[in-house]
Amino acid sequence: MAIRVMLVDDQVLLRTGFRMVLAAQPDMEVVAEAGDGAEAIEALRATAVDVVLMDVRMPRLDGVEATRRICAQPDAPKVLILTTFDLDEYAFSGLKAGASGFMLKDVPPAELLAAIRSVHSGDAVVAPSTTRRLLDRFSPMLPSGAGEPQHKDIAKLTEREREVMLLVAQGLSNGEIAARLVLSEATVKTHVGRILTKLNLRDRVQVVVLAYETGLVRAGGGAV
Q1: Angstrom distance (rounded) from CA 40 to CA 67
Q2: What DSSP element (H or E) covers 85?
Q3: What is the pTM of this model?
């Protein structure tokens, strides 16, 4: 079954370009388009969508608030934020609102298609290096952790799972974590899956956000 995609951008030419790229793929179909967040939410009431390609800066309702409202719905589609500027201040807000990742609008078509497929399969598409740069810049905007209540389920993690969580939060890939802890990548992937399940998180992006918000990792990427 083809991946059903919605394009949300106030620039018609950009939507046309994305539509042409996606239409050439046998496993993808553009089923809806919208010029702003409000139109997107309205369209979702009538159309089944798997992945939303969401612009950030739009009139009426911006992409961050639209993402928050969409991801709060039952059986919500995955949202992939597309931004014009690397490290746009809205990108982190979009991830926190529930997006499964973000990419630049000038990303090569092959990378965009791979990202859509990854998001559809349940993975996040924020590269570890990008995660590190984002958090180095925006973590001061998050609570420091001092006096913040710990996530009630963090205590359920084993010592090894907590180690893995801290390294994920610092932006390390599964391969880098495996090398650091002398484990196989398959074992690291298993640990990450258990962390997501125990903490009721959608993907490793949410792991990063949670670790910073609860103070497990401080600004600059160091574990507390």
Answers
A1: 10
A2: none
A3: 0.69
